[in-house]
Input
Amino acid sequence: MSLRKLDHWVTAGLLSAGQAAAIRAHEEANDRPWLQWAAFGLGGLAILLGFAAIIASNWDAIPGALKLGVHLVITLGCAWGVWTAWTRERPVWIDLALFLFSGSLLTAIALIGQVFQLSSPLWKPLLFWLAIASPLLLTFGQGRLTALGWSVMTVWTAFELLDRFHVWLEAHSAFIALPLAMPALIATGAAWGLAHSRRQVFWHAILFCALVIALFGAAFAPMAWWYTGAAGQAEQTAWFWRYAPWLWLAAGGCIAWLWRQARFAGVAHVLLACLVAFSLPPLLPATDAAGEVLSALVFSGLWAIAAWAASRHRQPAAFKLAIAMIAVRLIIIYFEVFGSLLETGVGLILSGIVVIGVASAAVRLARRWKPGTSA
Amino acid sequence: MSRTARLLLACLALPVVALIASALDAWRQASTATSWVLPIEGYDPRDPLRGHYLAFRYVLPDAAVANAWSDDWRLCFTGKAEQPSLSAVTMTDGDAGCAARARWIADHDGFRIEGAMSGHAVFTGRFYIPEADGQALTRLLAGRQVRMAMQVQVALNGKVTPIALLIEGKPYTDWLEDNQS
Output
C-alpha cells in the first residue's frame, strides 16, 4: 500500500501524528521484498524459457515415447500440486494448480496428435478436453482463473462446432441449436452453483463470462446478417427456421427457470434480450441496405439492458463494463459510417460529446441507484 | 478419506486415464497398420504449404482413381510395400486378395479424394513438417526434379496416415542434410 497519503490525512486532521507513525511501523514490519521476488521470478522465467528453446530446437530428434513419457510426468506433477493445495486448503494455489493441470491436458492431447500424426478437425480435441477436464474444473474450481479458462475453452469449442456444422447445417439443424444456446445453459448452471455451492467467486465468474458471451454473440448475429446481403439472408432465413425452435426451446427453458428466482431475474432479462436480438433479423424482410447503424444500435441496446440489470442487482463491475462497451461501440460507429478525414474528425468530435454525455448520465444513474449499496 | 477427497482423486484420475487410453489406442492402430510407399507431387503450386503442413497429391494409377469416383471410396493395396499396386474396390467386394484396404474416413485429411464428382479426381494429403524445412520442401515438391514419396500406414479400419516423407527413397531430413551442405 502507498503510504504517501498519510501526511495529507494528518494535515487534514483525519489522523493524529501518532496514528500515522503506528501505521508506518506496522506496514514496514509486514513489508514483503517484492523487488527481490520479482528478480527471482524473472531469473526463473528466463531459465525455463532457455530450457524450452533448447528442447524445441531438438524437437524432431526426440523419440515420441520419450516426449509422451516426460509429458505424463509433468501432468502427474500438476495433479499432485492440485492434491497438495487442496489438502492444505489454499484456494489460490488450488486454482493455479488446476489451471496448470488442465493446461497440461491440452498440450498432452496436442502432443499425442503430433507423435501419432493424427489429423482431425479442431473441434474433436477441444471437445475431448472439455469432456475430461470439466468434471474437475467445475467441481473444484475456486476462483476467476479457472472460471475464465473453462469459459474460454467452452466458447472456442462451441465456435469450432458451429463452424464445422455450418457445412452440414441442414442435416444437423437440431445440433447447431446446442452451441448457440450454450451461454444460456452455462448461465443457468452457474446460477444453480451460486444457489447451492460455497464457491461463490467461481460461479459468479462463470455467470459473468456466460453473459458477456451471450451479449457479444447476440450482437454479432445482426451485424453478420446485415453484411450478408439479400441473397445470403434468404438462404440463412431458411436455415434459421430449421434450428430456431430448438434454440428457443433450450434457451427459453433456461430463461423461464431463472426468471422465477428474484436473485437471477436480471440474468433472465439479459438472456431474453439476447435471444430476441439474435432471432429478430431473420424475421425482417431481406435487404441489401448496410446495417452499420442498426447493428450498432442493437449492440448498444443490449449492453444498456445489461447495465440496467447490473445496477438493479448491485453489480458495479458489470455496470462499468456495460457503459464502457456502449461508449466504445459509439466511437467505432463513426469510423464505420464516415469515410474522409474531415468527416472522421467531425465524427470523432461528435462521438466524444456522446461518450461524455453517456458517461455523465451513467454517473448520475449510478448515484441514484447506488450499485453496491442498495437493492 | 472423505467423500470429497475421493471425488477429487476420481476427477484427477479421469483425464489422466483417458489420455493414456487415447495414446494406447493411437499406438495400437499404428502397430497393427501396414506400411506402404506412395509417390507424391505438388498439386497446387500457389499454396502447397499451409502453416506447418505440406500439402501434396498422391500419384496413383489413373484407373484406380477413376474407379474410386464416389466420396465413399475404397482402395485395395497389393504387391510390395515399396511399389504397391492399387485398385478401386466396392464395399461388397470383400477382402479377397487385398493386403490392405483404405477407405473414406470423415474429417481425415491425411489421404482424401478431391473433386470426386468432377471427373478429375485426385487423392491429396497433408503432412506436418518443421517450419525451418518448409521453404526447401515446397521448392522441391513444385520443381519435380527429385523423386518424392510418402510412407503411409493403412490401419485396419481403412485410415491412411502419412508418417514419413521420403526423397529419393531416403527420409527427407537425411536427404536435405546430404544435399544442402
Q: What stands out?
A: Helices of chain B lie at 3-31, 62-67, 131-143, 172-180. Residues 45-50 of chain B have pLDDT under 50 and may be disordered. The interface with chain A takes residues 5, 7-9, 11-12, 14-16, 18-20, 22-23, 26-27, 29-30, 107-110, 126-128, 130, 161-163, 173 of chain B (CB under 8 Å).
